[in-house]
Amino acid sequence: xxxxxxxxxxxxxxxxxxxxxxxxxxxxxxxxxxxxxxxxxxxxxxxxxxxxxxxxxxxxxxxxxxxxxxxxxxxxxxxxxxxxxxxxxxxxxxxxxxxxxxxxxxxxxxxxxxxxxxxxxxxxxxxxxxxxxxxxxxxxxxxxxxxxxxxxxxxxxxxxxxxxxxxxxxxxxxxxxxxxxxxxxxxxxxxxxxxxxxxxxxxxxxxxxxxxxxxxxxxxxxxxxxxxxxxxxxxxxxxxxxxxxxxxxxxxxxxxxxxxxxxxxxxxxxxxxxxxxx
Length: 278
Description:
Blueprint: E1 2-3, E2 6-7, H1 20-34, H2 47-59, E3 86-92, H3 94-102, H4 115-129, E4 136-144, E5 161-169, H5 170-175, H6 178-190, H7 194-211, H8 213-217, E6 227-232, E7 260-266, E8 269-276
Parallel strand pairs: 4-6, 6-7
Antiparallel strand pairs: 1-2, 3-8, 4-5, 7-8
Helix pairs in contact: 3-6, 4-6
């Protein structure tokens, strides 16, 4: 759409078709085509994931318990409505935040304090303060398995992500120093493996078969009143989106699903679009 102040591009994608990385890869490939430059076409070889899962399960059949093969946490309720109007934008300087977080942890553990884990810890704590509840809180951090499965091309277009799940008592989420909370988040991410992806993919397929594609679009990884999912799209290793008239000067991620936090780049800092329950 052409406006007086510039051009507006609006793109939406169904999670029944693709994950966040695929969405941004599609945009950069489209932009390269508009510039007349070569690009690697997205690869739709979903069978790679399916065959990988079958092979892994066959090889590990004697080592995995039934509990380990149970599908991961998803709310498949077809009546679930996650939409919200209560949205806040946080602006964070990650370098300053990491420097402060390091003061509260042992030197041997400071390497676990990545920008992703520290920012996610701050976002989770901020979200938890708004819930005013006791009991366990759940954090879900999507992992991109393109970097972990050699058979998957970086240009794979589809769902190659699965959530690292962390559950902690609300008292810990609210009261732990950011550095200590970030270490627990890093640990949950490091423990993600092929089983995590297999369980999650199986649950997605089950949800699609039982309730249809619309249910996949509306699925909740966690209950927004007890959990949060944080996606860091700022870490995607993709070039700036430039359709030939210059790279985007402003990026707007209109996530309005309660229980979600989306991290995007903003100059030297980052911003987080955090959606609370109504």
